[in-house]
UniProtKB/TrEMBL annotation, chain A:
<dbReference type="InterPro" id="IPR000515">
    <property type="entry name" value="MetI-like"/>
</dbReference>
<dbReference type="GO" id="GO:0055085">
    <property type="term" value="P:transmembrane transport"/>
</dbReference>
<feature type="domain" description="ABC transmembrane type-1">
    <location>
        <begin position="66"/>
        <end position="277"/>
    </location>
</feature>
<dbReference type="InterPro" id="IPR035906">
    <property type="entry name" value="MetI-like_sf"/>
</dbReference>
<keyword id="KW-0472">Membrane</keyword>
<feature type="transmembrane region" description="Helical">
    <location>
        <begin position="70"/>
        <end position="89"/>
    </location>
</feature>
<comment type="similarity">
    <text>Belongs to the binding-protein-dependent transport system permease family.</text>
</comment>
<protein>
    <submittedName>
        <fullName>Glycerol transport system permease protein</fullName>
    </submittedName>
</protein>
<feature type="transmembrane region" description="Helical">
    <location>
        <begin position="208"/>
        <end position="225"/>
    </location>
</feature>
UniProtKB/TrEMBL annotation, chain B:
<protein>
    <submittedName>
        <fullName>Glycerol transport system ATP-binding protein</fullName>
    </submittedName>
</protein>
<dbReference type="Pfam" id="PF00005">
    <property type="entry name" value="ABC_tran"/>
</dbReference>
<keyword id="KW-0813">Transport</keyword>
<dbReference type="InterPro" id="IPR003593">
    <property type="entry name" value="AAA+_ATPase"/>
</dbReference>
<dbReference type="InterPro" id="IPR003439">
    <property type="entry name" value="ABC_transporter-like_ATP-bd"/>
</dbReference>
<dbReference type="InterPro" id="IPR027417">
    <property type="entry name" value="P-loop_NTPase"/>
</dbReference>
<comment type="similarity">
    <text>Belongs to the ABC transporter superfamily.</text>
</comment>
<keyword id="KW-0547">Nucleotide-binding</keyword>
<keyword id="KW-1003">Cell membrane</keyword>
Amino acid sequence: MEKTWNNKAWFMVLPVLVLVAFSAVIPLMTVVNYSVQDTFGNNEFFWAGTDWFTDVLHSDRFWDALTRNLIFSAIILAIEIPLGILIALNMPKKGLGVPVCLVLMSLPLLIPWNVVGTIWQVFGRVDIGLLGYTLAALGINYNYVNNVFDAWVTLIVMDIWHWTSLVVLLCYAGLVSIPDAYYQAAKIDGASRWSVFRYIQLPKMKRVLLIAFLLRFMDSFMIYTEPFVVTGGGPGNATTFLSIDLVKTAIGQFDLGPAAALSIIYFLIILLLSWIFYTVMTTSDAQK
Amino acid sequence: MARINLDHIRHAYGPSPKSPSDYSLKEVHHEWNDGGAYALLGPSGCGKTTLLNIISGLLQPSEGKILFDGRDVTYLSTQDRNIAQVFQFPVIYDTMTVYDNLAFPLRNRHVPEGEVDRRVNEILEMIGLADRAKKKAQGLTADQKQKISLGRGLVRSDVSAILFDEPLTVIDPHMKWVLRSQLKRLHKQFGFTMVYVTHDQTEALTFADKVVVMYDGEIVQIGTPAELFEKPKHTFVGYFIGSPGMNVLPAKIDGSSVDLDGQKVALSFAPKIAAGAKTELGIRPEFVRLGREGMPVTISKVEDIGRQKIVRASFASRPIAIVVHEDGEIPTDPRVTFDPSAINIYANSWRVTDSLPIGGAA
């Protein structure tokens, strides 16, 4: 068949282009617009250059929130990934237990994020919450409202409750795809339970684990709803993550310039980390 | 190395089996000699792999006992039975090097590292992967991977038996031949008890001293390749072994003569048949003589397969295959005679030995 040489094909991608322009490019450029100007309302803008960026990057508030984010993500990953693997390894492989376990595991994932926050907010209250009341009755001084450590523990436990299932389901999918012959061969070879995990299950789960790791990192790094509902960023600024800080700056204080600059920096951090993960994943695949 | 006794073994995959058809493996009662090379031959789904997994301990039989050298091992795990098994599809440990893959079964059993090195190098040499010893196993082709699986089965020198579950399926024909001869040589050298599952009769006949033919969950015959060829105990063995398989023709037995739809054939013995049994005559295509004398046949097709010709014909309104030598002539008015010593009589598909009726057995 003769090939037709013209540029009409570009019209084919036009609808997508328009959609992306409205949903991503235009809002993003508006943010860029705000980040380099100052405004006092009335649609009056004054050129500010890179001032807002310099301000944000020199503020303790930004670095503190970023540190909190990184610590939170590190803790979450260090607990959820091994715990998820452990649960997946112990889930039944056949029989009635499989659907029961799968449904139980999916339940937390089906609950809207703000509801999860509300559940835990009530659950942890010392006066009426089951957890808070029980702990207080046991003589443990627990109060997430004014104790920094308690607030962090509550957020971490909540996130583990909410999201470990995702890691479990991904790992489980990896595990059930391992043919029986591998386990039989391992028995014949006299492999220990640890060797089976180390040389059969872990290598076969590697790809899904990388995805689980990436998803949990991105999600925990962008966490907003749950801490906003439970602690509102407090006590003090103890649980004020970048996203909460951003909303406070933009909607609370109406500092649109600094908020826009912060958004762009936040966006670049996530972009950078995603790129690093992507590179790590593709190079480890290329070794195969 | 061990003598293996299968004592009234039966197996059903479902719970509470009742009728014989619930059993994937009907009763097997048999002794496997120490140092023997056995081939389990049969079509897919006949229970070969089930039997193999029962011997290795991956599967617990529903009924019966397994003895190794007289010791009851029925409830012992695979590890305690000290069995090596090679599977149909390659199983390798991706993250390990080729060398470590082969060393794995030895290291798990705490064999001294010097001995490990000696054994692994020997196996590497045998499977021809010595130059890749230090490479990661995951980059290899399917047949190289299968060679590693094979190597892992052979690396231990003290095993009770080595079981092979169609191990050469993924290997290309030339390499199959090489590996099979190496297995054979290894067997002669070390005297392992080897059980080799296959559905390829050439593989079974070249590998084994004794071939165990299975059909529909039971062992129908155990014998040397020659016995399977000359005296198939069951009509299934007759047409499963040999290419083309045995001609099986419905026959009426009358004393020492057989009536094949009007054509009379004399027998050298008078088979005793239980009343009402379905009787058949079996004759291998190699022992049907085509010439100008005997019973008339109608030739429909002649296949020239090089060293011989296979004549497809119709005899007494039944299809029949005849093997003719490469330059044997095919007469215009073809007739056949049967070599009387090569005639087998079957009652209800089981061979009738001389004058002893065994019709209806199974």
